[in-house]
Amino acid sequence: MGALHVIDHPLITHKLSIMRMESTGSKDFRTLLNEISMLMGYEITRDLPLEDIEIRTPVAPMCAKRIAGRKLAIVPILRAGLGMVDGLLSLIPVAKVGHIGLYRDKKTHLPVEYYCKLPEDIDDRTVILVDPMLATGGSASDAIALLKKRGCKSIRLMCLVGAPEGAEKVLSDHPDVDIFIAAMDERLNEHKYIVPGLGDAGDRLFGTK
To answer: What is the pTM of this model?
Structure first.
């Protein structure tokens, strides 16, 4: 069964506080998002299986451990999810990267798919789906459904900030998917933005309005 995991390491909490500040510019916002993504990557990959391997150190032979061949894919939800890819790739440089494009209709607040490009063997990989904000949960839930249609059996959702409404929707729609976030905020406002949140992650990341 899937579960909600809040990764509240002091370094992550500190960096997230700076990201939340209205005065933080795009350059620092991008840098901090990259750093937090890398730190969260340690936890989201904590249970990767290991296997024995015989090696030789400069002193003696030994039985060591290495990751047991589980293939990974990082799939950002465009566009804000792009800011989380490099941090994960710094830990898992051999991971393949796919892209899912969804936008939220301003009237209905429902996600609309406009792009999807995934590795050919996506069905054979553990997928880390990334998006900084888990607000209504609609985009994340639809992206997970899309991945499942492509044959994905192991999916993990990694977000920066979440609202209870979004987490509840994803866990309800996809009880087999674990959610990893850095902070669970209070609620959504009437415009479906997370409160207190950090504003529009995509706009702050890329300097747009």
So the answer is: 0.91
